[in-house]
Amino acid sequence: MSGHDSKYFSTTKKGEIPELKDELNSQYKDKRKDAVKKVIAAMTVGKDVSSLFTDVVNCMQTENLELKKLVYLYLINYAKSQPDLAILAVNTFVKDSQDPNPLIRALAVRTMGCIRVDKITEYLCDPLQRCLKDDDPYVRKTASICVAKLYDINAELVEDRGFLDALKDLISDNNPMVVANAVAALAEIQENSSRPIFEITSNTLTKLLTALNECTEWGQVFILDALSKYKAADAREAENIVERVTPRLQHANCAVVLSAVKMILLQMELITSTDVVRNLCKKMAPPLVTLLSAEPEIQYVALRNINLIVQRRPTILAHEIKVFFCKYNDPIYVKMEKLEIMIKLASDRNIDQVLLEFKEYATEVDVDFVRKAVRAIGRCAIKLERAAERCISVLLELIKIKVNYVVQEAIIVIKDIFRRYPNTYESIIATLCESLDTLDEPEAKASMIWIIGEYAERIDNADELLESFLESFPEEPALVQLQLLTATVKLFLKKPTEGPQQMIQVVLNNATVETDNPDLRDRAYIYWRLLSTDPEAAKDVVLAEKPVISDDSNQLDPSLLDELLANIATLASVYHKPPDAFVTRVKTAVQRPDDEEYPDGSESGYSDTPANAVDSAAAPSSSSNVTHAATRQAAPAPPAPSAPVPDLLGDLIGLDGAIVPVDQPATPSGPPLPIVLPASTGQGLQICAQLTRRDGQIFYSMLFENNSQIPLDGFMIQFNKNTLGLAAAGPLQVPQLQPGASATTLLPMVSFQNISPGPPSTLLQVAVKNNQQPVWYFNDKISLQVFFAEDGRMERAHFLETWKSLPDSNEIAKDLQSVVINSVDVTIDRLAASNVFFIAKRRNMNQEVLYLSAKAPRGIPFLIELTGVVGIAGVKCAIKTPNPEMAPLFFEAMEALLN
Amino acid sequence: MAGAVSALFLLDIKGRVLVWRDYRGDVSAVQAERFFTKLIEKEGDPESHEPVVYDNGVTYMFIQHNNVFLMVASRQNCNAASLLLFLHRVVDVFKHYFEELEEESLRDNFVVVYELLDEMMDFGYPQYTEAKILSEFIKTDAYRMEVTQRPPMAVTNAVSWRSEGIRYKKNEVFLDVVESVNILVNSNGQIIRSDVVGALKMRTYLSGMPECKLGLNDRVLLEAQGRSTKGKAIDLDDIKFHQCVRLARFENDRTISFIPPDGSFDLMTYRLSTQVKPLIWVEAQVERHSRSRIELMVKARSQFKERSTATNVEIELPVPSDATNPNIRTSMGSAAYAPENDALLWKIKSFPGGKEYMMRAELSLPSITAEEGIPEKKAPIRVKFEIPYFTVSGIQVRYLKIIEKSGYQALPWVRYITMAGEYELRLI
């Protein structure tokens, strides 16, 4: 039954407007109708036919519904440009709104609401009032939407004329379609109003849930979306709601299903019974899986939502990973999203199959998809420790195919794998080096250079390899230059031979004199300064131990995730951004500036994890971050090592080597420092001091008091060899002390400098001198707790594994007689504050048993078992550690911490 | 949460506006056209582009049908799932009206298109998409009557999919149970994914407002009724119903009761994720002879009972895109080279159960090759077939009761058929 309307487009010759004018005023009905069609055709192709306004409006009064609709359509388009003439249409509108035919009544209010001209709007109120109470549900459902239209044009008018109440009354309408539209209108009005207008009470809830069973599929979506704002009073109510909504999961309309899933997920937060929750999870899985047989566009939306759902409730789809395997004909955007979910669902149980899939994808044609597949393998390696080896062997197989972009992508992820599992997989470096020549992308190059620098001592020809990059140094992108610089310094520090020495000259020259890049120049100067003043300090900075990175493929900020889950099925859930980030309200033709951020849905949602300050200078970009997007966006790494080595920085700022006092952190508030040199011994000079730990760094916190009669200056400090090789990381900075004055300082410390042989001891011998007095010697105690690292927390499983793996001979116990545990929680908190982390506890008779972990210098783990009775003195402390000789120090530290 | 679209666009293949309907006046056609033509230009193939795109404060969502794009634009946080699905329904409605939706049919019917856009969506909210009912009050020229139309009761009724007063001389229902087998076999010959998607497709020619009740051999139902379920009952993983089915009733007692729409519709779909033995197994051995020719030896085996027969079997075997001079022999059916698909197409009209057929093919390859390292597109072997009178799941229609107040007798006809869905074997 196809039409022949295309003929109306053909009258595009000159003089057509006057011709149309004649036809519109013809005395013959058919001719007028044809003329209006021509006008609409012209309008459709974008021609301005607004000059015919009066003539078209004259055709409005007609019995012919088709013609009437066309004229109305014309009015919607042109009333705005002819506001004065629009008034001509008002009479007909008002008349039509009282027509005996409900179709015409509805058409009249529907159209009037679309005409955003004040004069028309004024006349809309009376017809709208009537239509909201019309006998015919078709008119009422149209009128309810029209209230939202009017609110958009003139909110005050809606409130003054009581339309809101009329609309609320329609929620109780006996026709489900009217109810659904009233809900949609109220929800929109609420969104644009700061006052509470549409609050769902338990009474409305019941009504809406009933209407849900009877209205059209689209109406069901309106109702479910509005109801998702409802907060159930308690678990019981939540369960009741869920029970009423669950049947919707069986609906053929995917949007109904997704909105039902949203409702259920939100109510589940309130449900306390684990059985009910488990049961609901089981019920939601099949409908979610079935969404993947929908049209690809719907699949895309579903996948973006499933991505959110598995972050909150991973169990729902834990066993369904296979349905996310890509089909050959899936559009690329579907494949990309499936890949993302596969990574999230990958586990030790299914990793073999998943890897086989990734490998398959890595040989496909679409470059972006292939890259993402390679990266996915790397992310799985980082996520699943036990599968890491298999992942790496797949990556190596892929490298052997020698497809350029595969190799580059693989090298980028392998660098991250090295960061995740230090000293485990370095044997593959040789294979990587074979592909050196093929690298042409900055990120891959930078990664490879980082690997060479980091493992320079294991690569025989590291110097040659680096040298080959050096030739093109000036042309390389900044990312690569920075890495080259750092890698060369590492090489030099590890192999201080002639070759590297020459290279370092070249690089430093290139990176200082020959460059415009301030980041590069700053970093180069720092290295230069470090190398020329104190190569040992340079080693500590450049070769510092890097924190182990972790997988961040599940990282949406929890509060953002909550917000997005409340927005399932909407654009927010597709973009993974909160609605405020992209919703733009335009009031009548105000155009937004062009500089809005483009919320690209594809790779959003990963936040940059701040890398350790020292390391960020040493690893390519922020390499603690494994995701593609983030690494791409990462700003050049901060050029200077910051806080942990303030003296070096101070030195640099001075540049001529003079010591410039740097703002030191204020004296620690808290317990006063113990006196180590009483004034009576020190000829009036009193020194209080203690080792402390701050921001992951050890300091010697000192207080000098000059009780003598003369000013003292030129303070210097020296530490004798000790068990942990503690030494000052920089010179002591104490200003001249006038008689009666005092000064505090935080002296940064380094460890493992001058290690004293012999059994471990807590003795710390210190010498302090100044220009006026003899050298003062005093003894202090090394408290091991200042060495406990912030990252000493162990996963439970890891703890058990480590415990089992250590021989029993490494277990040492001691009764800490004087310790009393008064409250387990307080103890746990106090220990955590000192980086002794709680893992688990159990009760054995009346005894509390706590399991904790701590990480001592050089990453040595201490696994701790504390057994004691609350309130009774005496706690048994058993530890297991690869370094049992440190036990005495450790017990002493524990005793200090627990008292 | 509330969200509606600002406008709906129908665009041609280059992204130019054919027809558009402005619902809110805050996105202009010029703006949308500029964005979309740029997108097409940049991406080349918009089919590979994500269907939800943000540009300058506006979200665009689009689908493609033939040479037409359907696109909505919104400035709010609207329901993406609902709106994309709505666009697909718009396609269905247009197809119902114009037989085919393409640029030409839109031009030829622009008046009706405007009318439909006005009725299907109001202020950017989807309203009504039942083509059959819409055509009762929005008609194309040929069928237009001078009598003034009224909105059919169905538009606002609880039964929004069926009009009253339908009359047939002979009351009949045709019910086709169609099961599609989806299978994915990896290069090791492992079945990594298999499922069956079934659909109960109905064509109803029934008078009045008939109440229907369908009985299946659903295990949950039979067990609830205390009947023995030995061997005959099946577990359906996920069932989806046409909106005519009373979902709350099904949730309560697993009864499938409904007043059907007139004509054809999918009453329900279901999914079974049990491991299915591949009904037709294909193995291919490929030998490349020093870049001059390629030899394929293909075995196809039917792995179902002998009393069933697969018909219209089509096996698509990918070959290198630069292969020429095919020389093909088959033990059954015919095979031809389809260069447009870079594949050999082996067709077997009738393939009884428990049989094995062979095909050998030899193709020449050019001696000069493109530069090394660009991987060949690795397509899987794909198979199409139909097996009538057979279902993988064993689903059975136990009864279809039709009760209408006039008390007529209606005849239900039930057919079963299994066919290949996405049937991919990565074995080449």
Properties at a glance:
heterodimer; A: 899 residues; alpha+beta; Leucine-rich Repeat Variant; Immunoglobulin-like; 5-stranded antiparallel sheet; 48% helix; B: 428 residues; Beta-Lactamase; 3 domains; 9-stranded mixed sheet; 7 helices; 23 strands; 17% helix; globular; B-adaptin_app_sub_C (chain A); membrane (chain A); cytoplasmic vesicle (chain A); golgi apparatus (chain A); ARM-like (chain A)
Short description:
Chain A has 899 residues and is of the alpha+beta class. Chain A is built from 37 helices and 13 strands.
Task: Explain this structure.
The complex is a heterodimer of chains A (899) and B (428). Among the domains of chain A are: 234 residues, Leucine-rich Repeat Variant, CATH 1.25.10; 81 residues, no CATH class; 179 residues, Immunoglobulin-like (Sandwich); 112 residues, TATA-Binding Protein (2-Layer Sandwich), CATH 3.30.310.10. The relative contact order of chain A is 0.03. Chain A is 48% helix and 11% strand. About 9% of the residues of chain A have low confidence. In chain A, a hairpin with a 4-residue loop joins strand 12 and strand 13. Chain A has a five-stranded antiparallel beta sheet, with no helix packed on it. In chain A, strands 9-13-12-11-10 form a five-stranded antiparallel beta sheet, with helices on both faces. In chain B, 43% of the residues are buried. The mean pLDDT of chain B is 89. Chain B is an alpha+beta fold. The longest helix of chain B has 19 residues. Helices cover 17% and strands 42% of the residues of chain B. Chain B folds into three domains: 144 residues, Beta-Lactamase, CATH 3.30.450; 101 residues, Immunoglobulin-like (Sandwich), CATH 2.60.40.1170; 98 residues, Mu homology domain, subdomain B (Immunoglobulin-like, Sandwich). At the A-B interface, helix 2, helix 4, helix 6, helix 8 and helix 11 of A face strand 2, strand 3, strand 4, helix 2 and helix 3 of B.
